[in-house]
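Hey,
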Amino acid sequence: MNYTNPTRLQAAILDWAGTVVDFGSFAPTQIFVEAFAEFDVEVSIEEARGPMGMGKWDHIRTLCDQPAIAERYRKVFGRTPSDDDVTAIYQRFMPLQIDKIAVHSALIPGALQTLTGLRADGLKIGSCSGYPKVVMDKVVELAKCNGYVADHVVATDETPNGRPWPAQALANVIALGIDDVGACVKVDDTVPGILEGRRAGMWTVALICSGNALGLTWEEYQALDAGTLARERQRIHALFESARPHYLVDTINDLPEVVADINQRLAKGEMPQSA
């Protein structure tokens, strides 16, 4: 039995907030602000967006490790945050997140039609998220009401390590019966999510405009003038540079063209690990 490179993509592994649902990725971000506020510690939306894509406990730990936030915490409690303090914030975060998730559950405009087309071309649709399972179950339920059902879902607490480790992406490969990681494309709006795909040996697509990096609603995005949008694209390209995504596009609706290009590259023998 000899190894041969895949010649076509078999699966797209998609993030959720900022990728398929919740244009601007507001559901997780705002809740971090509210959870810290319940401990009388101010965290801005911009600060909360920084570690986006990680598991939520790790996200809170990363925020607490930032000197400015740690100092605000110290002024309230007389100490910098320990892991027990992080857990306390996380435990307050979780019910807030579950309560508010429906507010930002709408599908990205055009996403359902785009994914229907990709499935018609033979792609399986896997998914993973920085949400734990108790939140992910609610996200999946709401998405189903809007017509979107992924073929497989992996929450951040269903694997030994969340992003930027590759475990969630690889769990999708196993569950979907994909025979080569090079036949998968990982689509995400965060640096940890792109690193996840890279480390899993997949093609990677970073979303510039629908997610955390731009942080605007659909209406605000549509209202941007050409010059501002160009400057924002340039800024976000720089943010993703260290993660080395294979492609950077505005939204998931640009994915069919990317898939077609990847299929051409695979047919020529190119693999994501060498690109």
